[in-house]
Amino acid sequence: MTCRINHEHTPRISQTSERSACAPWPERPHLGFGRPPFAKSAGDSTVPKTTVLYVKEFNVPGKVGFWGLTRNQIDRLEKAAPRWYAILLLRNVAAGYVLTSAQVLHRIADGSFELSRDGDFKVNEALDLKPAQAFRSLDVLLDQIL
Prior knowledge:
The protein is an alpha+beta fold. The chain has a single domain, classed as Trna Endonuclease, Chain: A, domain 1. Helix content is 21%, strand content 38%. The strands form three sheets. Strands 1-4-5-7-8-11 form a six-stranded mixed sheet. Strands 6-10-9 form a three-stranded antiparallel sheet. The chain has a two-stranded antiparallel sheet with strand order 2-3. A hairpin with a 5-residue loop joins strand 7 and strand 8.
């Protein structure tokens, strides 16, 4: 598995157990425009698959997590058709929530992630996320998505 860097604010590549990983997290993982911050290629000996991590951060102490997933970015990810995840960091670069593309698209379709005038689908930690989607370390996150 390799990590292909697709953004100017991306981390160095480091070795984590038997797989390559994008670590440590960048200071500002995604600015809401341009290409997704990371693309990981993971595959068997026949067909490699690309996994894209769409990373957003929320770092306001004492507040419930709140993120905006950019509609244009989600549209680009869907058109490119890679396997992708939304990674919502919460006050800690190694903790937050992970949602599959199917979970994101389902919540958009049912109105749970409401589209605001600024073009972002708003995600509220208390209303829109479940504890089962949480991760507390980079290793747990990698285990969930790989």
